[in-house]
Structures
1.
Amino acid sequence: MRPLSEAPYLDLFDPDFQTNPDPYVAALRKESSVLRTPIGASVIDKAGVHELLRERSLHSSLLHLLRLQGVNDGPLYDLAAASLLGLEGDDHTRLRRLVSRSFTPRAADGHREFMRQLVRELTAAFSGRGECEFMSEFADHYPVQVIAHLMGVPRKDHGLFAKWGDALTHLLSLELFQYRAEVEAAQSQMSEYLTGLVADRRKNPRDDLVTELITARDGSDRLNDSELLSLLGGLLFAGYDTTRNQLAVAMTIFAEHHDHWEALAHDPGLAPKAVDEIMRFAGVVSVVPRVTTTDLEVGEWLIPAGTLVSLSLVAANHDPAVYDDPDGFDPTAEHESHVSFGGGAHHCLGANLARAEMQEALPLLAAAMPAVTVAEPPEWRSPLGGIAGPLRLRLSFTPTPGGGTAAEATHP
């Protein structure tokens, strides 16, 4: 075994790396699949990332990163500690078992018609103009309204959830210290709202996710109020920002691949493969950070206990040892599955919902926005923000009065 201190060095904070990481990763792949970084280690090969996502001695780094940024206690810390992202071992297994049936493919399929209606409503507001600012006119509304719909939140309150989601996404970043007051205010307001929502559903059950989780059982085991609030809050901060940015990134990619965009408009049945290729090619969550709880052997390297290990999803999804054309975009090709939803115990609980949202949205967007192009260079989020994506994305396209009509198809 070789010590991590001898591994090739990758400076994650180098501005040149943050602007264009691909050449750095490509060069270092030739030396090692395990790299030393300023904050620990990074693993960049598909096989290694896939295996370590399932490694039980690697724990979520969420609480570790909060403590590094000065959040050691209080409501914000408690929210994270009680979340699926923060729990480990038996506590995590118990909570996941109680809620998993609410996030199956079948459960997500039950909301597809609402998703289609919402996409049509949102695109109708701009499809006839031939241009839009995609974030403020579509992406900022679609995923959060789907989540609010699942929870049974009144339409008039959907804007509150968007505001809270914008703030809470900083929980997953290295910029929390800059936005702590904003995040804490959002957490307090959201918790107060959800407490009232849970209390109402206990008295007046409805056909929604909150009622479903209140009544979820495993034998005599049930979720308590703290677990309910943390789970619902976690769904908002983990599910809203990722999906809206993944849709935006998808638009920038299809703006350069009009043949695939046109095909999607005419055949929505292509959507499942298109979504998976978008997530492989340009997943907005580039890294899954983990912390070693024991000394860990990875290939020829010994990673000490207590090390922050960055599992590079983007590098794994572009591993030339696995993909014939790792840097090419082809949603018609057969690819090995990507790792953009993570894996193991912490595999993304909302993966089926996110897939359904994108599978329903993209064909309708393609029909409503033919020949889409990026009208001006977008301003991108900070690389330290945890989730990639544009702050603004102005698009031009051929106007389609009435919003266009995608061919009907049943998605698998």
Note: The first helix runs from residue 15 to 19.
2.
Amino acid sequence: MAWADIVTFVLIASLLVISPGPNGVLIAKTVPTSGRVAGLANVAGFVTAFYLHGALSILGISLILVQSAMAFAVVKYLGAAYLFWIGAKALYTAIRTTATKQIDTAPHSTATCKKRPLLSAYIEGVLTNALNPKVSMFYLAAFPQFITGANRSVTSSFLLVFLHSAINAVWFGAMVLLVSQLATLTRKGAFQRWLKGVTGVVFIWFGIKLASYRITP
């Protein structure tokens, strides 16, 4: 693979990673409520899902999802249902907290992070990324463009996956650190209720958008 191809792929993958999406929304929700380590567990889940998407694309399974309307619809609606569930749960928490007036009224106190199993945050990161068929479709479109030489197709493919996942880890790792630096603000009860409400709406919107997604010929 030529260096020019690698640089081009990195630029395209970087634009894809930094564009608004469910991963960034999940980080913005997790860090204020569960802490920096839980956010990094989310990122580790994203990276794992990238390798899953890459492996499926290399094995050709993702091609079946694209060519089979039924298979693609199943994956698409599972992903949409998961995003919708996360959004509905966040909205419910925000509404319940407001209704029961669980507001931190002490003059100088702030809400503390809720203890959460790291495995749960990791799985949430995996599912958020793995149930998005657009990632596999990106690999299916990218691999033929950037890989040359049949003898090294698998190695080259996983190199692209590694670069994509590394960009993802750097970008969202930096986001975790940035959000955690705003801990004093983000851990205030009123801010968390607002954040959960906005997160819920955004995730539901992403779910609806994914459910209505169609492959253009």
Note: Residues 101-111 have pLDDT under 50 and may be disordered.
